[in-house]
Write a structure and sequence with these properties.
Blueprint: E1 12-17, H1 23-39, E2 43-46, H2 53-62, E3 64-67, E4 78-81, H3 88-96, E5 100-103, H4 107-121, E6 125-129, H5 135-141, E7 148-151, E8 168-172, H6 178-191, H7 205-218, E9 223-227, H8 233-244, E10 249-253, E11 269-274, H9 280-291, E12 297-302, H10 320-328
Parallel strand pairs: 1-11, 1-12, 2-3, 2-4, 4-5, 6-7, 6-8, 9-10, 9-11
């Protein structure tokens, strides 16, 4: 490394706070662990419980089995629904297969589902802002498919058609970029001046807070590293927000070993954060990797205090193995 001379700028890390686990992810991961303790393996989980590679692999080692569809779960078993939520038809499929279910849907996603049901019952056209194919969007759309139109970003607005422009509301996926969502809402309002907004903003508190922290440090950072998986919507958005805030470079990595030394060329300030489904141990690994390369000075960039917690799914307070056996007549 060589000794630092007076002219060498000090290397530092700006560490975002809040970062990492949100209340909904914490609840979902604990729910899988508790179910395994309480009922023993296997516990089937429909889709990744949260969008993080490390978390999924860790739970698999403990006895969780992740499946793509309800049909893959043997009759009379326990199945858990992921934090992203599911459409009503999935609950029906589970009942038809005589499965005992644990619903680990994030309460903030459930809130959006309830809004969709309410506005559909009042015969509104619902414009759902979100990413095509994302589990959360599939689940919310399934609550009222005949009333919901997906709007995937501002450029999608031109294609949107509604039955009655005076009865239109927008809802959104909880893990989007706040700025891009409001840009989409602005474009929709130009097209539909009578568009109404949901009673409270759908983008979750944790998504917003992590983006605010990244904005604060992005302006000062030469490089921003976001720890998170490629299929994690909120993590991908953090990279975009960092670049938008003025960071020269930003990358998404699952683990420290994915960092490319070349990214550090000419870099004195590294911003570091993690998506809402990322355990802190992975961030610690990146801090260690950076400190070995001279980035030992760590400053916290604090954007908000988070104290929200959610109680565990109610199904963990019952004997589901007996219920599953009863359902399937075993």
């Amino acid at each position: 490394m060589g000794r630092m001379t007076a002219s060498t700028p000090a290397r530092r890390v700006l560490l975002a706070a809040p970062r990492g686990y949100c209340a909904g992810v914490d609840r979902a991961v604990i729910a899988v662990e508790k179910a395994l303790e309480q009922y023993g393996a296997p516990i089937y989980v429909r889709h990744e419980i949260v969008h993080n590679k490390y978390v999924v692999q860790t739970l698999e080692r403990k006895g969780a089995i992740f499946v793509d569809e309800t049909a893959e779960v043997p009759e009379g078993s326990i199945v858990m629904f992921s934090a992203h939520g599911v459409a009503p038809v999935v609950h029906e499929e589970a009942a038809a297969r005589k499965l005992a279910t644990i619903d680990a849907t994030c309460p903030l996603v459930t809130k959006v589902h309830k809004e969709a049901v309410r506005f559909a019952s009042e015969d509104y056209d619902i414009l759902l802002i979100g990413h095509d194919g994302h589990e959360e969007v599939i689940g919310t759309s399934g609550e009222a498919p005949e009333h919901i139109t997906l709007v995937d970003g501002p450029e999608d607005v031109a294609n949107v058609e509604v039955r009655d422009p005076s009865k239109v509301v927008w809802l959104s996926q909880t893990t989007l970029s706040v700025d891009e969502t409001m840009e989409t809402v602005g474009a929709l309002k130009e097209k539909f001046p009578l568009l109404i907004s949901p009673p409270s903003d759908d983008i979750c508190y944790a998504t917003q807070n992590r983006q605010i922290a990244v904005k604060q440090m992005g302006a000062e950072a030469d490089l921003v590293i976001v720890v998170g998986s490629k299929n994690s919507s909120n993590s991908v958005r953090l990279v975009e927000v960092a670049l938008g805030a003025g960071a020269r470079d930003a990358h998404l990595v699952d683990f420290a070993e994915e960092i490319d030394e070349a990214w550090l060329e000419g870099v004195t300030t590294v911003g570091l954060t993690s998506g809402a489904s990322v355990p802190e141990v992975l961030v610690e690994g990146v801090l260690e990797w950076l400190s070995q390369r001279g980035f030992e000075d760590v400053e916290i960039v604090k954007a908000a205090e988070e104290s929200i917690t959610f109680s565990l799914p109610k199904e963990l307070r019952r004997d589901l193995r007996a219920e599953a056996a009863g359902l399937s007549g075993k």
